[in-house]
Structure formats: C-alpha cells, structure tokens
Amino acid sequence: MKYEPTTILSLVSEGMQKNETGIFSAVKRDGEWIETSLQDFEQMVQDLALGLYELGVRKGDKVSLHAENSTEWMVIDQAVLSLGAVLVPIYTTQPGEQIKYILENSGAKIHFVSDDEVFSETKPLIKEIESVETIISILGSNHGKLRTFEDVLEMGVKKGEEEPTLFEKMRNQVEPDDLATLIYTSGTTGVPKGVMLTHDNIAGNALRAYELFPFEPEDYETPKVISYLPLAHMFERTASYIYAHCGVPPYYIEEVESIRDDFASIKPIYLVTVPRLLEKIVTGIKVKGQEMSGIKKQLYYWAVHLAENYDPENPPAKWKWKIADMLVYSKIRELFGGRMVGFNVGGAALSPNIARFINGIGIYCGLGYGLTETSPVLTGPPIGELRIGSSGKPIADVEIKIAEDGEILAKGPNIMKGYYEMPEKTDEAIDEDGWFHTGDIGHLDEDGWLFVTDRKKSLFKLSTGKYVAPQPIENALVNSGFIEQAVVVGNEHKFCGALIVPNWENMRKRFETTHHKFPEENPTENEYVIKRIQKEVDKVNAELSKWEKVKKFKLLEEQFSIEDGEITPTLKVKRNVVNEKYKEEIDSIYADED
C-alpha cells in the first residue's frame, strides 16, 4: 500500500489513542522502574516545548541531546519536534572532540546532557562552541551555569498560562517535509556526516516497517517491550516511534549487563537488537550444558543441536520438537521472560547459526537491513516468511537493485535529503537518478530476498588475486563461546589472518572444569589457550573456501573499544585504525609468509 506523507508527531499522537496500558514508557534508575503515564508524558512535552520556546528555540533551530535512553529523552524529542525544531542526538560513548564537531557543525542552540558525568566529556570544550546558548541537565547538576530539566518545565507551565494556544499553534505548523533530525554517522573513516532526515522520511518508514512486526498489541495483556540500543541510533529511535504508534510502552533498561533480570521482571513481547547480544546469550545457553552430566546433558545437547539445524522451510518432525520444547526450549524461553514473541535484528550481519537457534527454540528472529541514511529500514522478512541468511525483502515503496560491482542501491521515500552542508558527499551517495549507494555488497535471489555480504570498503584482495569479505568470517568466529571479538586481515598477503580477543570469562570456566590454573600473566601466550582458540578457528575454517580460511592468528588480551577509537558507537570495526594500531601484531602473522 502507498502511505500519505505524515509527521512523527501525528504518528505518536495516534498511538496515544490505541494505548490501553495507560503507560507511555518507563525507565530504570538505581534498580527501580519509573513509569510515566500517557497524560504526564503529553503534559511534559507541552511544558518542555514552551520552556524551550522561552529560551529562544524556533522552527528550524537545532537542539542537541547527549543522554542515555529514558522517558525524558522521548519527551525532549517530541518537544523539540513540536516546535518544528531539529533534534541532534549524540551517543553517550562519543568522544569529546567529535561532540564538539557535531555541535559546531550543526549550530546547536540548546544542548541537553543527562548528568554531570556525561557533561564532563564536553565541559572543557563547550566554551569554544559559539552557537550553544543554553545547556540543560536532565537529572540535575552541580554546575551553576547549567539549567535543569525541571526549571525549563516550570518556564513552560508559565508560558502556557500566558499563551494557552501557542503550543498547538507551533505544532500545527510542522509539515511532513520539514527537517526532523540530524544524525551524525559515526563512520569508520573521516569526520562524522550529518544525515538530514525529514518527518516523513522517518514516520513513513516507521509505518512501513511496522507491517513486518510479528505481533498485534491487542493480543497481549499489558504488552511491554524492552529498549536497550541507544536512541541516538535510528534503528532504536524508529522502533520507539513504532512502539508509541501501536500503543506498546518501551521499558528503557539501566545497563545491558543486567538485561536478563529485566527480561524476568518486565516479561517483554519484543526486542530490537544487534546480533552481539543474541550471540552472547546463545553462547551462555550452550555453555550451560557443560554443567550437566549423563542423560540430562545428552538430551540438552540433542535439543540444542536440533535448534541449531532448524530450517523454517523444512522444520523438524513435530514430535521431536515437542519433546525438545518440553525438556529444554520452554526453559530457555523463560530466560527472555516467557512472553517473547520475536527479535528484530539489525545493525550488523546475524550469524545463520544464531538465527536458526532462536527460531528453532520457538521465538521468531528476523534480520532486517538499512542505514541511518534510509531512516533506517530498507528490507525485512514479511510476516510468516523467513529465509535464513537473508535480510528479507524491500518494505513497501522501497526499491532495491544491485549495481554491476555488487553494491546495493536503494530508492524510496525514506532516503535522506542529504548530508548537512556536504553537497559533494551527498552527490557521491545519491546519484542523478535518485538511487542511494549504500556502500554494502550483496545480491538478490530469484524471489527478491536480499543477502548482504559485507561493506564495500571492507573487501580486501589477497596477493593471489582472490577477494575476501571479512565480516561473514568474523561473525562465524565470534559465534564461538571462546571468542569475544575478531578482525580478519590479509590485504595484499597470500592468506587470511586474524586478530582475536578470547572470551576470557568462558576460558576461565574451561580451565576450572579441566582443573587447570588460569594463567593470570600473559594468557595470550598460554599453550592451552592458543590450542583452544585454534580448535574454534578450525571449526570455522571447515565451512570456508580455501582462500578464506584463517591460517594464522594473533591473540589480544584487551577488547577493541569505542573509547580507543577501534570501533564505532554502533560497534563497527574501524579497520584502518585497527590495522595501524596493531601493525606489529599483524606483521607477526605474516613474518614467515615468503
């Protein structure tokens, strides 16, 4: 179906009428859940919008937001949009110099921070940013020059009493083609680029993506969803608009390390996630079997094996699945709260083994594809259909085609207006026929299902002339319970090598179960550790082409991190940084090449 242009404001307000829970959203602070009613949310949005109006915010002005997920995050979002202003979200993990660049490039007038700890990243640099007139702390501040969220709400209450029609007047002037947000892509190379997305880019994309959601809220008593990916990322933000539109409150967790406790207490029906969380959970499930013995252990791994080999187009015999479900799967589903309908996975490639396992235990797990520049969803599996390894089919009104060099091109109403103040970069990304060049390599099968291979820039060429897509190999490696991170290397060399960070927690457990003492000093040089990782690499190599096999690897003790600039806030590897920083380690892999 075709969708009429609309605004994010309309999308959210329509959902207010559908929401039967009475709760707009909730946030966990200091271990306690704080729920916000629909009425309180609407009132806060109005009061904050009018408070910002008093501070000089007008249509088209930029307001930056540097904070963790929370109800207040969404209040700020809706208040800014109600004024026709533009929200500029910033990751809490973004380094200070990048934040400074974003504030200066966007010309942000108001800057929100969650608290003094988050503000500390930019405090030394903020004086140099001329555009920022006011800084507002959401949770209060010890800095005398910062205004508080509550202060601005009070300003709005007074303004509302003085001009009771002003809020609706401003809100009614917002048009579908108005700029709604500037999202600065973290990027694996160069300075961040400000992606310009309109109300209709995002709202229209949310409506089209909602068609792929495998649940109807009315089918569940008090439906809830959990949110943990940063709202600064379009994947989670668009999902939150969908939740608001269909009347399901998101519960913003405090820290991902305690998400299993949150599953148990919230009992969510749905989760938008990146593959890494599922990989860790599935690894934990598999490792748990090591604690068992005898027939119990045999049955456990029989069920695990059955799930790992699940094929949606050729499912196992019903009697087998029922036995596995009774003995194992039903208990695994309880780890997710017992009501989980499905996972929507994006942001990176999902290992086919993980997809099979999750679907095999009776929870829908669908992989979608998109980019910040596409608001973000381009493809996803239609309801009732699934093809392991595929990112689905194009959503309504979106066209996908593959260029001669294998690059995925997209066209549709969700494509960005361009990069802010970067016309040359915009022209590079969107050709004269309106096709957006994604920078990803992939192919469409005969039925129109999309398979994404890797980033175009990530492909490298061995000295033998063979091209290698490193991401699928890396995904297979981290599917092991003993490997936390992996970066495949080999450009202009004869064979593929890898930098591998072991999962030290599981490695320690293995040492304990085999009654060996874990080597606290230089564990990467330990013979047993190296042999264990070699065994995992061999398993992956068995499934790879000859030229893709990882022939040598180097173990690293510390994980790649956002803080050290080795991965982006969306957890993508900055290969140029890693290649430079670990040049010595990579050189050692190829020391005997000739």
From TrEMBL:
<dbReference type="GO" id="GO:0016020">
    <property type="term" value="C:membrane"/>
</dbReference>
<dbReference type="GO" id="GO:0005524">
    <property type="term" value="F:ATP binding"/>
</dbReference>
<dbReference type="InterPro" id="IPR000873">
    <property type="entry name" value="AMP-dep_synth/lig_dom"/>
</dbReference>
<dbReference type="Pfam" id="PF23562">
    <property type="entry name" value="AMP-binding_C_3"/>
</dbReference>
<dbReference type="InterPro" id="IPR020845">
    <property type="entry name" value="AMP-binding_CS"/>
</dbReference>
<dbReference type="InterPro" id="IPR042099">
    <property type="entry name" value="ANL_N_sf"/>
</dbReference>
<dbReference type="GO" id="GO:0004467">
    <property type="term" value="F:long-chain fatty acid-CoA ligase activity"/>
</dbReference>
<protein>
    <submittedName>
        <fullName>Long-chain acyl-CoA synthetase</fullName>
    </submittedName>
</protein>
<dbReference type="Pfam" id="PF00501">
    <property type="entry name" value="AMP-binding"/>
</dbReference>
<keyword id="KW-0547">Nucleotide-binding</keyword>
<feature type="domain" description="AMP-dependent synthetase/ligase">
    <location>
        <begin position="27"/>
        <end position="420"/>
    </location>
</feature>
<keyword id="KW-0067">ATP-binding</keyword>
